[in-house]
Write a structure and sequence with these properties.
mainly alpha; Growth Hormone, Chain: A; 0% strand
């Protein structure tokens, strides 16, 4: 077995984990909007294609049983490279049904890749090495975020100045497919074969253990309130996620800001960087004051900055620095607020089956994003962008209310 430095595969492993995730959950929204899909259908379908992350805990135990984690990583990367390649040729031509199926396959592979990659990371590295490289893995996952939500959109915008919309998206998706394929090829050499021989549970044993994990989770004290928190805490964000970029792209006559996709990429880049800084600040804040003292202020940080979109829809500013400043403020608040969500889920998951229970928590959190996202487009089409953003502000009330109840119980 080769003894390569983790530097040879940790960065690329988490780059490959992040790119497909953000393609499915974020880039697909802008892609389908620019290709002419109405907001109602776009929000519904781009929410549904993220369903694999909701049900991921159900099949995660079987990843170990069927093959090695390294095998799953390599195969999932190869399949994702292929599905994104097919998307590059089919989505821009208007084959929306096939494109949605391909996005769903990509999502399923990406969710499976998450399971295998995190497991491989723990298997291939000692506890000391895991701690040493956790910052590196987080950094490259964030780089994938910046690449997809900012740099890729800037590239699409640059290409659209030189060619048509469909061709620009084709070239961008081809680039993503090529990156994933190159990473898969690299990993066939760079990822050491880490095999742990020993007795493996039969499928019946796995099913029985999964049942025990879920039963233990739902028997936790205060689980109903915890589930309400996971489903409602990010409610305003769940609605905003599907309509921000369509709002930026929409003509001013329809209540939008009518800015280019390249400009959206630049604005989002500022927002993502400030969101990451907010996340770091939130972690330091919570570590100093404790979750109980931080959770309510963090909830306000997550929800109240959504008011910037009411301002956008009311006054339709187009000055670049104003847009950057407002989106940056909103995203920094999101970074602070999301920290509380993660820390509370860690708190809920504590005890036996800690890792599995945290995975179930994240599944409910994804469900809390998916369900509101499915109806966001229908709401917007019914009331317009300004009315929609006021509704988003009203949804801050249940988010803050459930956080207050959690605060009282902590």
């Amino acid at each position: 077995m080769r003894h390569l430095s983790p530097w040879a595969w940790v960065p690329t492993l988490y780059l490959a984990e992040g790119i497909p995730y953000f393609l499915v959950t974020s880039v697909s929204v802008t892609l389908f909007t620019q290709l002419g899909m109405p907001n109602a259908q776009m929000a519904l379908f781009t929410s549904l294609i993220a369903f694999p992350w909701v049900v991921k805990p159900l099949w995660s135990p079987f990843v170990d049983v069927l093959r090695t984690k390294r095998w799953w990583v390599l195969v999932m990367q190869a399949v994702m490279a292929l599905t994104v390649l097919l998307l590059a040729f089919l989505a821009p031509k208007g084959f929306f049904t096939i494109a949605l199926i391909l996005f769903t396959i990509t999502a399923f592979c990406s969710a499976t890749h998450d399971i295998a990659a995190d497991g491989y990371y723990m298997l291939a590295l000692s506890e000391k090495e895991q701690s040493a490289y956790v910052g590196l893995r987080s950094t490259f996952y964030r780089i994938a975020n910046i690449f997809c939500q900012s740099l890729l959109l800037m590239l699409v915008g640059w290409l659209q100045e030189r060619t048509d919309v469909a061709s620009a998206w084709r070239y961008a998706l081809l680039l993503c497919s090529g990156i994933i394929a190159l990473i898969a090829i690299w990993h066939t050499w760079a990822m050491p074969r880490v095999e742990v021989k020993g007795e493996r549970l039969e499928v019946k044993g796995i099913i029985r253990e999964v049942g025990q994990v879920f039963a233990d989770f739902f028997r936790k004290p205060g689980i109903v309130l915890a589930l309400c928190f996971m489903l409602l805490y990010r409610l305003p964000e769940a609605l905003l996620l599907k309509l921000c970029n369509p709002f930026f792209l929409a003509p001013m006559s329809e209540g939008g800001l009518e800015i280019t996709v390249g400009t959206i990429g630049q604005i989002t880049g500022v927002g993502v960087i400030l969101m990451l800084l907010g996340g770091i600040g939130g972690g330091l804040w919570a570590s100093k004051t404790g979750l109980k003292k931080a959770i309510l202020p963090m909830a306000l940080c997550l929800t109240l900055p959504c008011i910037v979109y009411v301002y956008f829809a009311q006054y339709q500013p187009t000055t670049f620095w104003i847009l950057c400043m407002c989106v940056g403020l909103e995203q920094m608040g999101y970074g602070l607020g999301y920290t509380a969500c993660m820390l509370y889920m860690i708190h809920v998951a504590d005890g036996a089956y800690k890792t599995a229970h945290f995975s179930i928590c994240t599944a409910f959190m994804f469900l809390g994003l998916m369900l509101p996202g499915m109806v966001a487009g229908y709401i917007q089409e019914a009331v317009g962008y300004l009315g929609f953003f006021w509704i988003v502000m009203l949804t801050c009330i249940p988010s803050i209310a459930v956080t207050y109840l959690v605060y009282k119980k902590l």
